[in-house]
Amino acid sequence: MTVPAAFKLLLLAGLLAGVFAQDFEDNAAQSSKEDVAESERGEAEARLFHKQAENAVYNFTTILVDSIMDVTQGRIEVREGVRVEGKYWYSNGVEKRTVVYVSDENGYRVISDTTELLAEKPNFDANGRISVHTNIAGQDFSYTISADDIARYKEVAERKARV
Ligand SMILES: *[C@@H]1O[C@H](CO)[C@@H](O)[C@H](O)[C@H]1NC(C)=O
């Protein structure tokens, strides 16, 4: 290789490196602009979310009592702005667990978490009933279903399946 040829190659390599470096800087500038836009969008969303949270008001209750399987389950929650107070529980005939919680500007906290013993074993009752109660924003909705009802529905479903 002659000296001028080697020099040209070096020059070409230098130029290419320069082009790539410029390209890289452009990309970096572009993505940092995008990062700023992204974080501004994130802050705006957080402000909106906080404003919505401050105005949020709701409450609901849902309670299930199943004396056929000796099971209960329920939850009550009341929200006023950023503060939420609630309680949920469930039992299986042997023990019942109840958790009381609160969530506010200091985060979510469990106030109490208790388990009480109910009996040695569940008290199944083939003639029992299942009652479901909900109240959402002051609207009550309840129904009860007995073991007989379930047997009847099953019969109807089986009859339908045969035809
Ligand atoms: C639950 O919501 C209803 C309807 O919005 C309201 O009348 C009731 O006072 C609320 N209850 C509680 C405990 O905040």
Automatic annotation (TrEMBL):
The keyword Signal is assigned to this record: yes
Source taxon at top rank: Eukaryota
Keywords: Signal
InterPro entries named among the record's database cross-references: Insect_cuticle (IPR000618)
Signal peptide bounds: 1-21
Protein name: Uncharacterized protein LOC124294625
Gene: LOC124294625
